[in-house]
Sequence to fold (329 residues):
Amino acid sequence: MITLEAMRAAWPQIGLRMLAVGHALPAAGPVPNSYLEKLVDTSDEWIVSRTGIKERYFCAEQQNVELAEAAAKEAMARAGVEAGQIGVCLVATFTPDRQSPSVACCLQQRLGLPEDAVMFDMNAACAGFLYGVQTARQILLAAPAERPYALVLGSETPSRVLDFTDRNTCVLFGDGAAAAVLELSAENPYYAVCGSRTDNEQMLFCTGLADDKPGVVHMQGQEVFRFAVDIIPHSIEQLLTKCGLQLADIDHVVCHQANNRIISHVVKKMHARPEQFFINLQHYGNTSSASIPLALNDMWEQGLLQRGQKVICVGFGAGFTWGACLLTW
Ligand code: UT7
Fold:
């Protein structure tokens, strides 16, 4: 009989392969900063210089699940994986269309996912996709042999929870979804670190059932900024120690896309090469849990991701949640 120690020793050797990514953006098209200039006292100059964001997408009629469905279908088609082969479907989101059922369960019918697949949403805010990948890896170990693939999404419609009279938040976020198809692999090493540091529920939150006005994002930007520039290098260093690598060994670093000044701070603090750090937030704003897989999708579409490359993804969000993983593409 296998001992607990033997199980623990084997665990790090169980790698993960990302077969493909896919994405979906609201059909209404990009919304430039000039649109927000009409709603609040802001300017394109302020938004670009303080964040790097030039445009983002907002859903008009579309729902979260519709974005999720389109992203999942694109990822599955690119991976050549059928619905019947999916053993687990996890949707990271803090903006589900309904409290219940989950976006993941709504996807089951739309995609024809098997009845014995595990399906649920998880809310780890902007670090949600990384939590999802880590969780899916563990669930895949127990999946039936004929369902060896995981579908992990970050799918968000923050436009539904933004106060369009609050310039501190409404200029920052955007809607979008991205999906990844994953399988366990002996050849693709995978390492992850993640955790949560309490922010006393004050720095970054979206009101809910216990609040007078549910469904509104509030943020103390500078506090979140301080957390981000501390936790990103910290989690990357923890991850590198775990896998015995140096930052110079890494081909790409994909940070949660919230603000390019955060990424510049990290590059400087870690004495990194700026070109290691991918940035696409100028086009999408902060899409919360969708930002990392959306970045991977853009990198793949631009031909930047080659098989065998080492990619670090690092996220942080409300909670404060944080996480980082090393993927071997
Ligand atoms: O995924 C969630 C994670 N979130 C984040 O990572 C966000 C982290 N924080 C940030 O990215 C930045 O703190 C912000 C972009 C949110 C704000 O930038 P900042 O440089 O920290 O600005 P600030 O909050 O210190 O505000 C500076 C000034 C203030 O005016 P006064 O008090 O100096 O007169 C703000 O009222 O900028 C003002 N301001 C704006 N002005 C024009 C705040 N928002 C705006 C705006 N347009 N949209």
In short: The chain has two domains: 4-185, 190-328.
